[in-house]
Q: What sequence folds into this?
């Protein structure tokens, strides 16, 4: 089994508000766990929101009673939202803070994934196609689905950073749960919009499929590409080679 993860500050930001967690080993009852969180908020609030979210989610999974992975993920999202919202509500300096969340675990019956916001999960299918699994909770995603924007136009739209759902900004949140059938994909990628908003999908696909490079080298290439294209945001990437996991 092999995975590689990076969390890069980017070329323009003074603070890294992204956080990642990557474990090929079991976490609680889950055989593995991968998380990306992209924080938002003034001063250190975004950094606090993403850090609290990742730490809380990992501990929640460790403490969770063994059961259905999808149910565990949904309960985790509700619990971490209450946690971050409570922190933001009780501290004026953290008021309004929030974060995206995308988390995944590869189980015997498939890949379970949950997301809130615009951090994403992609897979490389067995027939070598890059597919986006998650749907962004954002204004430009809604406009794309109505046919008002292309993906290229969405990447440069002035409202591209406006998300419609986040962890911690409201008392309750609804997370979206996805399941990719076992054997459907040979690789998966989790990322923040610091990658997906800076690098075209076709180029992401090309780099992910460079079998002559190590997984770590491919992650470095993705981060480098985002920075060369401006690096206007923090950049988080997790690549997991599912073929090696099965082996």
A:
């Amino acid at each position: 089994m092999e995975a590689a993860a990076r969390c890069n500050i980017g070329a323009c930001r003074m603070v890294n508000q992204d956080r990642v967690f990557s474990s090929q080993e079991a976490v609680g009852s889950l055989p593995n766990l991968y998380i990306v969180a992209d924080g938002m908020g003034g001063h250190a609030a975004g950094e606090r929101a993403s850090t609290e979210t990742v730490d809380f989610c990992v501990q929640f999974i460790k403490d969770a009673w063994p059961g259905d992975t999808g149910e565990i993920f949904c309960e985790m999202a509700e619990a971490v939202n209450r946690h971050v919202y409570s922190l933001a509500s009780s501290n004026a300096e953290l008021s309004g803070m929030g974060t995206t969340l995308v988390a995944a675990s590869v189980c015997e019956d498939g890949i379970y994934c949950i997301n809130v916001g615009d951090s994403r999960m992609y897979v490389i299918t067995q027939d070598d196609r890059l597919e986006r699994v998650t749907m962004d909770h954002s204004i430009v995603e809604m406009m794309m689905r109505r046919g008002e924007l292309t993906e290229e136009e969405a990447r440069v739209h002035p409202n591209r950073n406006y998300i419609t759902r986040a962890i911690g900004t409201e008392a309750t949140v609804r997370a979206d749960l996805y399941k990719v059938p076992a054997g459907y994909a040979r690789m998966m990628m989790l990322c923040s919009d610091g990658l997906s908003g800076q690098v075209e999908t076709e180029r992401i696909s090309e780099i992910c499929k460079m079998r002559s490079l190590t997984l770590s080298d491919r992650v470095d290439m993705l981060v480098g590409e985002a920075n060369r294209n401006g690096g206007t945001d923090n950049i988080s990437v997790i690549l997991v080679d599912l073929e090696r996991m099965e082996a």
Summary: The mean pLDDT is 93. The two ends are 7 Å apart (CA to CA).
